[in-house]
Task: inverse folding
């Protein structure tokens, strides 16, 4: 039961982040502007979804260390990946791609 509460709050947090981004920058991220940012977005999505699957398998096998490792890989993918995505996103918006 508590897992659903955590997921609900995480979803609310993501919506809040999106709203804050729009209010701060004036840029709405409702679509991907170009091929480079799309490639980064797809690559990050594949890695994170794979790590969710690995984490589920690790929890099922009672292997906490592997579940934590999968979470760490997801974080280390999203943190620099988000920076790279934002960089490409800004470039593609400026170029009008």
Result:
């Amino acid at each position: 039961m508590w897992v659903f509460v955590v997921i609900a709050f995480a979803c609310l947090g993501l919506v809040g982040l999106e709203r804050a981004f729009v209010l701060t920058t004036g840029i709405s991220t409702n679509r991907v502007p170009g091929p480079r940012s799309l490639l980064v977005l797809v690559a990050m999505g594949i890695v994170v979804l794979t790590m969710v699957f690995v984490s589920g398998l690790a929890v099922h096998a009672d292997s906490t260390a592997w579940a934590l490792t999968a979470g760490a890989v997801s974080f280390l993918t999203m943190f620099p990946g988000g920076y790279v995505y934002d960089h490409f996103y800004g470039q593609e918006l400026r170029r009008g791609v």
Summary: The longest helix spans residues 64-95. The radius of gyration is 16 Å.
